[in-house]
Design goal:
This protein is an alpha/beta fold and 232 residues long. Helices cover 50% and strands 15% of the residues. It has one domain (4-223): Rossmann fold (3-Layer(aba) Sandwich). The longest helix has 20 residues, at 168-187.
């Protein structure tokens, strides 16, 4: 198991995935998007038309689904079995259901095992992002970062990611959705969203993505001085 790990947690829209991908590229490490894994299970649940209240069936889907997620930061493909769900897991339907699915102990247990085994198989360094990496998945990681941002800023970023020029009313709705997701993720009984006690908190509201990436790369150099200097 590699000892070179950067655990990046934070709420939806805080920039975890894009920042983690760029940090991994700078360090020439692999990157694991755990949120995509939960979305993949959610996609499978919806694809099989299983009710979100049917916890037993959802647990079986989690156990039986073959999830493949590429860890090359230049390749974000995700598969459920032979199905390429890279685009499908970002649908509004999956987004609306993923909190409910990811709150189940059976789902989290299955995916935490898969996340830990991926890190264990890594040859050198791993940037892994999610909502409970520093607190549950890899509590012994030497570098933990918690990213956050103002909900309004996160709503604006989500609109940009979707390529949409959102009206004020659209932004209000998206901000409300983000706040609702925060409440669900932070309030769940199992692995709630929270910063680890030894995490470094970075508010990205007024920072560019490159500034956040540079900050984390610098932290990596300080925590892991033995790594080679990342290329700019």
């Amino acid at each position: 198991m590699t000892t070179h790990v950067i655990a990046i947690d934070g709420p939806a829209g805080s920039g975890k995935s894009s920042v983690s991908r760029q940090v991994a590229k700078r360090l020439q490490w692999i990157m694991l998007d755990t949120g995509a894994m939960y979305r993949a299970i959610t996609w499978a649940v919806l694809d099989q038309q299983i009710a979100l209240e049917d916890f037993e069936s959802i647990g079986r889907v989690a156990i039986n689904s073959e999830i493949t997620i590429h860890t090359d930061p230049d390749n974000s493909q995700v598969f459920v079995g032979d199905h390429d769900v890279t685009q499908g897991i970002r649908s509004p339907e999956v987004t609306a259901a993923v909190s409910a699915v990811s709150a189940l102990a059976s789902v989290r247990s299955r995916l935490v095992d898969l996340q830990r085994s991926t890190v264990a198989d890594a040859e050198y360094g791993v940037v892994i992002e999610g909502r409970d990496i520093g607190t549950v998945v890899l509590p012994d990681a030497r570098l933990k970062v918690f990213l956050t941002a103002d909900p309004r800023v996160r709503a604006q970023r989500r609109g940009s990611e979707l390529g949409q020029d959102l009206s004020s009313q659209d932004l209000d709705h998206m901000e409300a959705t983000i706040r609702e997701r925060d409440a669900k993720d932070s309030g769940r009984e199992i692995s709630p969203l929270q910063a680890a006690s030894d995490a470094i908190n970075i508010d990205t509201s007024d920072l560019t993505q490159e500034q956040v990436v540079e900050r984390i790369v610098q932290l990596a150099r300080e925590v892991y001085p033995e790594i080679s200097n990342p290329s700019p």
